[in-house]
Write a structure and sequence with these properties.
CATH topology: TIM Barrel
Order of helices and strands: EHEHEEHEHHEEEHEHEHEHEH
Radius of gyration: 19 Å
Distance between the termini: 11 Å
Largest sheet: 10 strands, parallel
Structural class: alpha/beta
CATH class: Alpha Beta
Length: 303
């Protein structure tokens, strides 16, 4: 199994430091190219007063500025964009990026954003049904000659065109760990992601996904298993924990010395995870870059 790594981008730079943030990325990303193959942007509108940028706008910018990387959202909230428009946006970004888009999407969960931006926030079961419709609409608009008509429980399209259709069709990643979401992953996904999960939680949810695949007659190995979260390494465990400001620890992230981070990652690899999307804590510190690129990821790849 070949391991792959993606770099999770911060939703925004520290206040008043957009230029520095971009300069730091221009310094770090050439060093990461070759080890990391993709860049990922979270899809949120705000975290209280922290600077937060809209994901799709940033993704288009990233695709143009750093053409050596694939691009993906981690993960889109299906409620935030009309499904047919989202299919068109995906087809467009796939075209202008020369086929570098990974379309990652989930049901949506951040209620305060929905309320603040005046989106309806139905119960979870409805949002998952909406995600099902969204996935159907995207797949049909991307693969069927137009015009395309579809009527689901919540969303529909009538004589919808999506030209040019994406070539190749972007892989679809479904994010989330709920039982109903896992069934959608079994039915629709090329890739599945569970963020910030301990190995115990991830292993449990992976077993559920495999059971759903068996129920519908799909080979579970046809889905790529992925994990998104934080990687924080330092010379001592205390220094690594300090990078996380109390938010991340070995129960929900790969935090510690290089060897401790390796030990936390390896059970996921042994369980079949082949793609890690990592938000690296401590960038652009050169010691952090060195430990990640020399002491952690190569060891995990070679194990």
């Amino acid at each position: 199994m070949t391991l792959k790594f993606g770099l999770g981008m911060l939703a925004g730079p520290p206040k008043g430091q957009l230029d520095k943030w971009m300069d730091d990325l221009d310094t770090v990303l050439p060093q990461f190219a070759g080890t990391f193959e993709s860049l990922w942007m979270t899809d949120h509108f705000f975290w209280q007063d922290e600077p937060t940028y809209e994901a799709w706008t940033v993704m288009a910018y990233m695709a143009a500025r750093w053409p050596q990387f694939k691009i993906g959202p981690m993960v889109l909230g299906q409620s935030y964009r009309n499904p047919a428009l989202l299919a068109k946006m995906g087809a467009t970004l796939q075209a202008i990026s020369n086929g570098r888009l990974i379309m990652a999407i989930g049901a949506g969960w951040k209620e305060d954003e929905y309320r603040a931006y005046d989106y309806p926030y139905p119960r979870a079961g409805i949002r998952i049904e909406q995600l099902d419709d969204t996935l159907e609409i995207m797949k049909r608009m991307w693969t069927q000659p137009g015009p395309v008509t579809y009527e689901g429980k919540h969303y529909k399209i009538v004589d919808a065109w999506c030209e040019p259709r994406p070539d190749p069709v972007p892989p679809i990643m479904v994010g989330g760990g709920g039982t109903k979401t896992m069934m959608l992953a079994a039915r629709h996904a090329d890739m599945w992601n569970l963020p910030d999960a301990s190995f115990e939680k991830y292993s449990d949810r992976l077993n559920v996904l495999k059971q759903h695949c068996e129920t519908i007659g799909r080979d579970p190995a046809s889905i790529e298993y992925t994990w998104f979260g934080r990687l924080g390494v330092a010379k001592t465990e205390a220094e690594a924990l300090a990078l996380s400001n109390g938010r991340w620890n070995p129960s929900n992230a790969f935090v510690g010395t290089p060897q401790q981070a390796i030990d936390l990652m390896m059970p996921f690899v042994e369980a079949g995870v082949s793609y890690f999307m990592l938000e690296v804590l401590g960038l652009p510190d050169s010691d952090t870059v060195g430990m990640v690129l020399e002491d952690v990821l190569p060891v995990v790849q070679q194990a």
